[in-house]
Amino acid sequence: MSAKNTQPVVLAKVPLSTPWQTLDPFLFCMHHNDQYPAGNEKMGPAASLEGRQIGQDFSNKDGWSMYHGEEVPGFPRHPHRGFETITIARNGFIDHADSLGATARFGQGDVQWMTAGNGVVHSETFPLVNRDKPNPTELFQVWLNLPRANKKEDAYFTMFWHEQIPNKTVTDAAGKRSEISVVAGVLDELTPLTPPPSSWAARDDSDVAVWTLKMEAGAEWSVPPAHPESTRIIYFFEGDACTVGGESIPARHAVQVRADAACVIQNGDTPGEFLILQGRPIGEPVVKQGPFVMNTPGEIRQTMLDYHHTGFGGWPWDQDSPVHPADEGRFAIHADGRRETPTS
């Protein structure tokens, strides 16, 4: 009979930095939460941009940033290779365009899962569609690594419309509620939507989970055990305090916990929100250079040469950060011309 694992449930806890700390198989996690004002006729802020370093504005001045956008906030065209982006658009909208000719508008709880694979160029803009009221915009962008065998796959994206994403509300013994949304990873009776086929998350043994959790004040919920080889981080990003695995956690902390043990989260005196990332490590060398993630320095050099010579397919749009009309609904047009909407 094997010895019982006496390792504590909480392995580490650190204040949230920018970007958030991650572990293999994840590479990067960024939380954007911008309180944008009303929009103008170009769907940019109807406010002065004076005092901002336009093109490189991460100031959070007045509660929002333009990022690399000049008229509309966001990230004009830029390349990726060798990993995936999981973009959870919690509030506001994101307009996507890419070098394959695909485009989309998504938001209000939708998720875009994009496999960069062998290379893609895309833009992500945050159109401020409301001209008579503020445009709060909140999203997570999570980078999930690709195994060496899948880094040369063709690029494309999958849409998870919020109406289709599995979720449930659970009530604890005291009648306090917790809401869980499942982007990836089976949770009890909830089976997630299918990730892209070349994703590490598409493998049955990857144990990848991406869950968001919203808890009432004083609510309690137990994260179920997972594979013993997996890594698991609980990001406590909204609320005053909580306990995780019996340990007190201050506001805005990342908590690494054992994945193979049930882990009780007890929320504090105000509503709390959490992001949970979990997965078995890929366990391969990681070499990163900006938006490129490969296994060796030589592959990074080759990627730079490829991008210089091919542009990963070029750019079929007449501007670096295309936006759709303000009254356009949520939709996606894929590289093969297929149009998709939340009701299709």
TrEMBL record:
Residues 211-313 form the Pirin C-terminal domain. InterPro entries: Pirin (IPR012093), Pirin_C_dom (IPR008778), Pirin_N_dom (IPR003829), RmlC-like_jellyroll (IPR014710), RmlC_Cupin_sf (IPR011051). Belongs to the pirin family. Residues 325-344 have a biased composition (Basic and acidic residues). Keywords: Iron, Metal-binding. Its cofactor is Fe cation. This is Pirin family protein. Pfam families: Pirin, Pirin_C. Binds 1 Fe cation per subunit. PANTHER family: PIRIN, PIRIN-RELATED. Residues 62-144 form the Pirin N-terminal domain. Gene3D superfamilies: Jelly Rolls. One of its GO terms (molecular function) is metal ion binding. The keyword Iron applies. Fe cation binds at H78, H80, H122, E124.
